[in-house]
Design a protein that fits this description.
The complex is a heterodimer of chains A (74) and B (331). With 74 residues, chain A is mostly helical. Chain A has helices spanning 2-20, 30-45, 51-73. Chain A has one domain (2-73). In chain A, 78% of the residues lie in helices and 0% in strands. In chain A, helix 2 (30-45) runs antiparallel to helix 3. The longest helix of chain A has 23 residues, at 51-73. The termini of chain A are far apart. Chain B has an 8-stranded mixed beta sheet with strand order 22-23-26-27-1-30-29-28, with no helix packed on it. The longest helix of chain B is centred in the first third of the chain and has 15 residues, at 2-16. The radius of gyration of chain B is 20 Å and the shape is globular. The chains are: A mainly alpha (74), B mainly beta (331). At the A-B interface, helix 2 and helix 3 of A face helix 2, strand 20 and strand 25 of B.
């Protein structure tokens, strides 16, 4: 039960990051998406946070990149 | 005889649940224990003295220099922790920074890896910019191996199979050589962890590389960034395993080291430690190895730290709240 709740919560966090993670307002082309992605990753590396948290932040960076590229291309 | 003794010890260890790597072989010198007592923390009564996001430390004969990535400044302290000055501010002009992530010193000059401006700046102690040189990647740390050899590291973008992580420049800022290809598997999260590494400058323009998780070796590079050798780290120093959430589920990653330093012929590895939530974070134990990788000592710190620099019997460190801590090693 606890595991299901945890999984549901994790899914909710990931979904909310997909829907609500801000796309850079200034992103007009894909190179700007990549620049923002790099900024996101570099900040994650320098957080000095525990590794699972860093892994989650890096995942959110990748999701944001995908979302940004979609927004620019569509 | 020694071999038989070691095998017997390993069998004994297996029977008692201790990993064989943790067993000292006959002839291994015992591991000495030290504690590090707090001497000072940062201070000076100024807002500037506060460190918001301390990510790199360097020191000379009198002072400690800390790159504060969030405040876009290099903050200077005495070796007793008293705040002296902050140089730099946010921006893209000379003497301005965007996420300064590395600091190094040579002959009174301060070298700063100015990450999001994609450059290294060379500054006077007053903060005046003497020169800067650009690069097509975001520099992470900078190390001045000699007046004509500047080593810059990068984290890689996770999007290319051809990236290199070590970049050697001459004193004018011309790129001389790039080394150490980033591992690329197509999973940017897993690759990020496998490519995390630490550099410690050696005594003669050489330098040492330790991966945070990839392998149990200290890599020794010469002043021209050519790999000279791989020093195996004593088996008694145990890595910690953590299942990381990556593409396709969880994957075990061996966390080897959180930070490293080199001082007077010895390596200092800050061991990662488990947090209360089962995650793996910075620890409070520093392990000391000789030049051949043999474990000599363990130093217990009073707090967990994220960065460290070693200066004889002193340890300069940054704790988890980004405060500068100064410790003295005592038996």
């Amino acid at each position: 039960m606890k595991k299901i709740l945890l999984l549901a919560l994790a899914g909710l966090v990931l979904l909310s990051s997909v829907f609500f993670f801000p796309v850079a307002v200034s992103a007009h082309d894909v190179s700007e998406c990549y620049r923002d992605h790099q900024v996101c990753r570099e900040r994650a590396f320098n957080l000095d946070a525990p590794w699972t948290k860093v892994a989650l932040v890096l995942t959110v960076c990748d999701i944001a990149l995908g979302k940004c590229i979609l927004a620019v291309k569509v | 005889m020694n071999l038989i003794c070691k095998q017997a010890l390993i069998l004994l260890a297996l029977a008692s649940g201790i990993p064989p790597s943790a067993v000292a072989a006959p002839g291994d010198s015992p591991v000495r224990r030290y504690v590090a007592e707090a001497v000072a923390t940062e201070g000076g009564g100024s807002d500037n003295a506060c460190l918001a996001m301390a990510v790199s430390l360097a020191f000379d004969a009198d002072r400690i220099y800390v790159a504060d990535a969030q405040d876009c400044a290099v903050k200077i302290f005495t070796k007793t922790g008293r705040f002296q000055a902050a140089i730099g501010r946010k921006g893209g002009g000379p003497g301005e920074f965007s996420f300064p992530s590395g600091v190094a010193l040579l002959g009174g000059r301060i070298f700063v890896a100015d990450k999001f401006n994609h450059r290294v700046q060379v500054l006077e102690a007053s903060g005046r910019c003497l020169r800067s040189f650009g690069m097509p990647f975001a520099p992470d740390k900078v190390f001045v191996l000699s007046a004509d050899r500047i080593l810059v590291t990068s984290n890689g973008t996770g999007r290319s199979a051809t990236e290199k992580l070590l970049h050697l420049f001459n004193g004018k800022g011309d790129l001389l050589r790039e080394e150490m290809p980033a591992l690329f598997s197509g999973d940017p999260v897993l690759d990020a962890f496998r490519n995390m590494f630490l550099v410690s400058p050696g005594p003669a323009g050489d330098f040492f590389v330790v991966f945070k998780s990839r392998e149990r070796f200290v890599l020794h590079y010469g002043r021209d960034a050519a790999l000279l050798g791989r020093i195996p780290v004593d088996g008694r120093y145990a890595a910690k395993s953590l299942p990381l959430p990556v593409r396709g589920g969880r994957k075990e990653v061996e966390a080897f080291c959180w930070d490293s330093a080199y001082d007077r012929g010895r390596f200092y590895l800050l061991a990662p430690a488990f947090t209360g939530e089962g995650d793996l974070g910075p620890g409070d134990q520093v392990f000391v190895f000789d030049a051949a990788g043999r474990l000599e000592a363990r130093i217990d710190l009073p707090v967990r730290v994220t960065r460290l620099a070693v200066d004889g019997e002193r340890i300069y460190a940054v704790d988890r709240t980004s405060d500068l801590r100064i410790f003295r090693i005592v038996p």
